Amino acid sequence: EAQVTQNPRYLITVTGKKLTVTCSQNMNHEYMSWYRQDPGLGLRQIYYSMNVEVTDKGDVPEGYKVSRKEKRNFPLILESPSPNQTSLYFCASRAGTGGYGYTFGSGTRLTVV
Amino acid sequence: GEDVEQSLFLSVREGDSSVINCTYTDSSSTYLYWYKQEPGAGLQLLTYIFSNMDMKQDQRLTVLLNKKDKHLSLRIADTQTGDSAIYFCAAGVTNAGKSTFGDGTTLTVKP
Fold this sequence. Notes:
The complex is a heterodimer. Chain A is 0% helix and 50% strand.
């Protein structure tokens, strides 16, 4: 089944403790992206990648890192999480050509206390 | 940068048509999408339209694009209770990874 898999689905952590949210897709998509969803603020793009070793900042990149060492994986790294990073995070992927839309993962609900 | 705006709420009766509207600012946007998000789930692509199209129909869904006014709409015919969800409009440029989403319109369908 074609899908984007994120882990974990739920995570509660403490301020300053480094964490990684994993994302993997099995569709051989070139593009991958991370979004955060907050009430009243909609969906905001954190980082995106157009291919292996090519990443770029979205609208809200501060406090996040990403890497794209393999085509299928695009982990989101929070080096020193803070409470304002409490949010619902989505990973998504899409093909590089054709303009087809993103396929989204099921989301990771992160709480930083 | 691109800005995408939608009204936040829409309530309709079962069987009626729903129309969700969206405006965007970047005239270079080459594709526009509608996504649906059900409670506790990720976003699901419903349909898309390229900027060189005026209309696209897909079963109960009709997308209208007014490129001059940068206005996009999604019409759902014969709306059912299962259509209750948040609907997101998104805009982007071909071969660019950046996509901008609206804040979402919460559609409530009353029996």
